[in-house]
Amino acid sequence: MAAVAILLAACGQPPAAQIEAARKALKRAAASGGVLRAPEICAAAQAALTRAEAEIRVQAKKASWSRRYRFAERLAVVALDTGRSCAAHAEAVQEGRKRRASGSLGDLQAAIDHASALARHTSDPDIQAFLMRATLSLGEGRSSFDKGEYERASAAAGRGRAQVATAVHEIDRFIDDYRKSPRREVWRKWLRGTLEQSRDEERTVLVVDKLRRELLVVRGDDELASFRVDLGLGGMEHKTRAGDAFTPEGRYKVTEVRNPGQTRYYRALMLDYPNDEDRRRFKSLQKKGLLPRRGGIGSNIEIHGEGGREQDWTQGCVALSNDDMDALVRYVQVGTPVTIVGTIPDGEYE
After folding, report:
1. Could you tell me the sign of the dihedral formed by the alpha carbons of 4, 7, 11, 16, in that order?
2. Domain presence at residue 256
3. Is residue 232 in some structural domain?
4. What is the mean pLDDT of each run of 10 residues along the chain (350 residues)?
5. Is residue 218 part of a domain?
6. Is residue 138 part of a domain?
7. CB–CB of 301/309 below 8 Å?
8. For the chain, what is the domain count?
9. Number of C-alpha atoms within 13 angstroms, CB side, residue 147?
10. Is 316 left (phi over 0), alpha (psi -120 to 50) or beta?
11. In CATH, what number is assigned to the domain containing residue 299?
């Protein structure tokens, strides 16, 4: 009887080990979402495991060798192989979810960056709200990703992309409306006068396009240079009073060139804002009750350095990076004309 027991134990050890390995494989599959992603395989593995465990229990009660024990061995092998297949499939599915979630989050970040750059050309708070919600969705997605919750991460990325799409739609609408502004004829008049002056007097002029956030250096029919600019944090409206943080629009000239050590903003080109037209407009708005009687029109509008921040932050000035200011001052002297428009009307300057 002892020999039979030893033989039985020796025969039983392989299926027991296989059954335990199958259990672990199924646990691994469950942890990877295999029950949801590979239900047929996992169900087959669980059924094989249950049958193997039952057969082992039956044979363990017998005191003699049985052919049924070999059947238990085969069941254990099936359970192990099927469990491993389920786990492998689940892990492959999980890895795929991880790759897709990572790609979706990366795409969302790129979309937010692009839309945020476009949003600089607007002053609509709703657009910023959509982009803020998209950024929050990105944060939620990254948090879920770090926890291994890849489907939730992808879902958050999807919400974020929808929010960005809405923001981009609103940005396009804003830009289209801005280009159709009733002031475009005034901008056209100023620009034509400035370019004619440049050609007639053979002198360099500066043109600032607020919508494009661009400063152009022009002489005659030649564009000598262009620079990216930051503007007033108030938005895209025309400056009307002190403290509104709008960048003014009009035809101005440089009244003073300040070099390093003479300004807090590295270099500065002082402009003659407010000019006569600005004052007339200011008084008209006061008479109409659209501006307070005791308010001021503002002053100290400059083109200065410390810019290049890719966001609007000044109190109405035009800001360039310090390197760009070094390049710009080579074209400028006291008296250089500076024209600031909301945007250059289509067809007016190529």
Report:
1. positive
2. yes
3. yes
4. 34 58 68 57 71 68 54 61 65 83 95 90 87 95 93 95 95 90 93 94 96 94 95 89 92 96 96 93 88 86 95 94 97 97 81
5. yes
6. no
7. no
8. 2
9. 11
10. left
11. 2.40.440.10
